[in-house]
Task: inverse folding
């Protein structure tokens, strides 16, 4: 079969391609780099994080004149609310210091309720940037309520296997598009450095593209599997962790899903993004015939929504708005100056439609003739 012959030739070429080895080494370095980062920066240290919250609320209160914050005092309702928030954060620090996790969850739920009340108070818009957003607070509320309802009295250890993977996959979105762009930027161009191999198999261009896609997808799947493999020492040393611990995400409103679900969603999203980027690289390779120009276009379309967030509100259905899928799952576009409620489900629909459109373009305009016409 032509596809199998093209696939065989492609595998011979890819076996000698150092880019694939570099990509796998880069994945391993990133995974181990996250481990060192967690250790060096004390990420997940709740006491350190809560002290940061305490200093933030102090900074907010410093914007007010010193007033009586008691119920009958002359302080504003917002000032009294913020003073109570400060008290609850101090209680959080105390319960963490005493290792009373269940009391910490109760104090955290009370803090989330106070913040919910603060959103409706006069003058809140003047200090909103210094405190968690409404969406983030809603996620916190659901999380702590679930922990209390389930009677949990333990904390998550980021050096266990599942919690570490959650942390990794909750940050990988910003770099995955760039990683795949580098990996596929010369998806068609590399083979023309080996004309003797290619000319021996006069297959159609669409057959050739199909074989290249299959090889590229194999490399991408290997990169994803390597993440799980490189993190496996944490399972051996520190245990599996709780795969059912809830994670707050945005699906039109604040929602809780399990850690395992979040990891599965992330892997699925990464795979869809990989197909999107790969097909776009094929089109750019054919049109531009230059790896660096292909990368340049990739970076422009990826970074524009980040540099100019207003573009997300102006063009909400632009597929490149969904490349940093972690931001979509956190509901970051909802907190823009001009909020836009784009969700993961909408992103998957738009990406899949874009993939179908690119496949149509490749099949219709790039599939005539043999390889040497590409």
Result:
């Amino acid at each position: 079969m032509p596809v199998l012959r093209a696939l065989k030739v492609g595998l011979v070429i890819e076996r000698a391609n150092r880019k694939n080895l570099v990509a796998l080494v880069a994945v391993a370095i990133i995974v181990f780099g996250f481990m060192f980062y967690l250790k060096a920066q004390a990420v997940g240290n709740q006491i350190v994080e809560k002290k940061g919250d305490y200093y933030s609320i102090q900074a907010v209160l410093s914007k007010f004149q010193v007033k009586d914050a008691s119920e009958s005092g002359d302080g504003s309702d917002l000032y009294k609310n913020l003073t109570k928030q400060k008290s609850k954060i101090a209680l959080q620090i105390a319960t963490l210091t005493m290792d009373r996790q269940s009391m910490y969850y109760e104090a955290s739920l009370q803090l989330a309720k106070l913040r919910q009340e603060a959103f409706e108070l006069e003058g809140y818009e003047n200090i909103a940037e210094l405190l968690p957003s409404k969406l983030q607070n809603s996620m916190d509320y659901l999380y702590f309520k679930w922990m209390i309802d389930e009677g949990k009295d333990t904390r998550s250890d980021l050096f266990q296997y599942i919690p570490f993977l959650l942390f990794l996959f909750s940050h990988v979105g910003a770099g995955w598009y760039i990683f795949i762009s580098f990996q596929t930027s010369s998806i068609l161009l590399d083979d023309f450095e080996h004309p003797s191999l290619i000319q021996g198999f006069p297959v159609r261009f669409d057959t050739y593209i199909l074989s290249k896609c299959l090889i590229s997808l194999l490399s991408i799947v290997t990169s994803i599997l390597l993440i799980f493999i490189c993190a496996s020492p944490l399972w051996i040393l520190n245990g599996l962790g709780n795969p059912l611990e809830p994670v707050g995400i945005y699906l039109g409103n604040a929602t809780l899903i399990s850690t395992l679900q979040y990891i599965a969603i992330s892997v699925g999203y990464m795979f869809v993004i990989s197909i999107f980027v790969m097909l776009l690289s094929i089109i750019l390779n054919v049109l531009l015939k230059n790896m660096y120009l292909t990368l340049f276009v990739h970076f422009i379309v990826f970074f524009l929504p980040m540099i100019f967030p207003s573009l997300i509100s102006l063009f909400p259905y632009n597929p490149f708005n969904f490349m940093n899928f972690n931001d979509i799952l956190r509901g970051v576009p909802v907190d823009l100056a001009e909020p836009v409620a784009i969700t993961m489900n909408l992103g998957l629909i738009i990406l899949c439609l874009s993939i179908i459109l690119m496949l149509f373009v490749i099949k219709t305009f790039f599939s005539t003739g043999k390889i040497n016409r590409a």
Remarks:
- The chain has 15 helices and two strands.
- The chain has two domains: 2-42+159-373, 46-149.
